[in-house]
């Protein structure tokens, strides 16, 4: 099964992750968003956890900007922070607000274990490793949502807005930019044959671990009662 | 219920963690170690995961040495790394070896999600925060094992060695040293009234989160089949 | 001598830095910018080094975003990264371009030792310490340029544009925002009496060291031939 | 001119650094240690600054332990921390004590700018980059002192002890271990052809910059009056 064309590294890492990638992008939670069968309570639980997630995810992109080697890399990473803080997070605030969850309640969300595990893994990968380790750990979320968005494009029902956001031109453009950033960063540091270096295995493992943590996030979001 | 005297901060953080501290130190897994009812399979599963845990835990103590402000702090933190790498981990290797798990198998242990969540939380607390954040996140493991060891002292049965190790004079001395390190680091940075500063809440939260992750670790270790 | 009102911490840190603060803000290089006596060659040398400086300085602000504890802190830090990358650095490119130094030449500038010393000190303060250590090390540059700008306001001559930029409403507003960020971050973590804690001495030392590194930067920029 | 055989990477990086490597290892300060013409005042100034240097250098090796990918890498890095804190630094304390500088005075040494620049560069390279960046920045000090020690072996006069320490079997063994650590870390991550990857240029630049900072350290140590 072929995925979207978000670049060479994404194609390789996605293929190398095998069934876990399918389990993530075709998770029951995702199917529930698509056909509208997801209980609203689960959706709101997800949105609240995702808000907490995005705070740490934006921190991780900021760390990427700190670890960039070129001005272009820094600009791309900081543009993503900007988009998360000024576009994606306000959307969450707005959607939650429609459902009676105000910003204070949203910010007071207790972080679920599966949420904490994921974001700390990504941040620690970045701190202990380098720019590439961080990008490999960030990729499954950014690009996986792009792939899910494309698959759910045109969904009607209660979650049509969610589907439209990630299927939309803006988000898809972001995915292409991030894919280009990753391919450029790999080429710049490791050359065109990077996939044959031992380093490639570490990066593949980062991508695969983050994918499994995405599955854990959907599992957590699907659970009836938040911890 | 009063705990061991590992210093002022430990007493406060332990009390502030409430029921979660009891759930951690009196976990069914711990009771199984005490009365010998823990299945050997679970024990070996635990030892293997704990080996992976200790690698990252030693890395976190090394990070503490890097973030120390004084030579004494650095010496204390690096002595702990040394003890972990040259004493505690070889013990695991030896015990596992007796049960037919060789070093290669031990090192190839796939990291369970609850294991990963804990160690990355601790490391990230240290990288994003300062020396105090790191110590508060490290404390529940080091000092909780000391408290458990004291309670399980004199246990006979299949896990007598485990109990004797953490009840033993060497490990208890380490707990007192770590408690002293923490109290000294707090005093040096925040003064004698540190517990009344807003900073104290963050540190309490670090300790409490790490305690909950300890519970998750016992839960994971108790599960029949490792993921 | 009283300085601009960029907040409480700035006032205290500035006073606590004593003569070094005066040496920085009244450096011969600054006087040369004011009265136009600075040789153009020195100015261009400075601009090139400052461009390299700003890359690392933006990385340090990105690190601040990664280390922030609240969304507001993160938004403030990332807005500064954005301003540096998308406003201040393009201005340098434009000014240098007018004087025959193209972007490629600008980016190929070899980093002078006094430049490297300063930026690595700031970044390392942030990595090894916490958000407060980083802000204390970042403050002398941001706020010192604000103070210098105010003093040089209305200067005519060849460096009128430089003076107008830092005296201007936009830059002065940034200084007030950064001052507010610092005061809020201190209050949030250490409470209203933070200046009486031992921690205050470390932060004062961070500010004073960064101030001395600013003097070293002007010294380096004043030297006739770049190393 | 051929250097000591501390491994493949050292040979390449040393050659790639060219004249700067000669300027470092044959600095006037080194010649003064060799023939005894170095004023005692300069030597004591150097020892005091080197003590401050070693604190941060030990922190950098601790960071290397935190960033290690294998237990063997971690053990090697933490053994170096241990040697620095428990062997090399006590030697400085002892030598200074003979000359009337007690430990309190030693620890109160104000850090010279050239000292600060060097250690912060190394630490920041490690934090922003990965294990390899850190090792490349650490190598010139460890291995350069080994090369200098070999060249100064057998020197008599007032600095015979200094020469004997770095020429000695213990220190030379450490150099071989560090060289092996570096070669192994490169091979493990980048494969046998690492020197042909773009990554090699970054690492070469790290080594060369640290070498230039060593020259700056000797210059600082040679200056008649410490700042």
From TrEMBL, chains A, B, C, D:
Regions crossing the membrane: none
Superkingdom of origin organism: Bacteria
InterPro entries: Haem_Oase-like_multi-hlx, Thiaminase-2/PQQC, Thiamine_Salvage_TenA
Gene3D superfamilies in UniProt: Heme oxygenase-like
Start and end residues of each Thiaminase-2/PQQC domain: 20-222
Pfam families: TENA_THI-4
Name of the molecule in the record: TenA family protein
Organism, scientific name: Sedimentitalea xiamensis
């Amino acid at each position: 099964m072929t995925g979207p064309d978000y670049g060479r590294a994404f194609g390789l890492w996605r293929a190398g992750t095998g069934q876990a990638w399918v389990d993530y992008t075709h998770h029951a939670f995702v199917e529930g968003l698509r056909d509208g069968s997801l209980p609203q309570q689960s959706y709101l639980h997800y949105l609240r956890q995702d808000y907490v997630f995005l705070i740490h995810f934006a921190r991780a992109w900021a760390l990427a900007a700190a670890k960039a080697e070129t001005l272009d890399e820094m600009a791309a990473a900081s543009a993503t922070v900007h988009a998360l803080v000024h576009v994606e997070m306000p959307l969450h605030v707005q959607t939650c607000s429609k459902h009676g969850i105000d910003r204070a309640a949203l910010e007071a969300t207790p972080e679920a274990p599966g949420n904490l595990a994921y974001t700390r893994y990504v941040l620690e990968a970045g701190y202990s490793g380098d720019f590439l380790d961080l990008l490999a750990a960030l990729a499954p979320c950014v690009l996986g949502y792009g792939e899910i968005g494309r698959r759910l494009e045109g969904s009607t029902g209660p979650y049509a807005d969610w589907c439209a956001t990630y299927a939309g031109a803006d988000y898809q453009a972001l995915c292409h930019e991030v894919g280009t950033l990753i391919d450029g960063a790999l080429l710049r540091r490791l050359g065109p044959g990077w996939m044959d270096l031992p380093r490639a295995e570490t990066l593949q493992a980062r991508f695969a671990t983050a994918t499994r943590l995405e599955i854990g996030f959907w599992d957590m979001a699907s659970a009836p009662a938040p911890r």
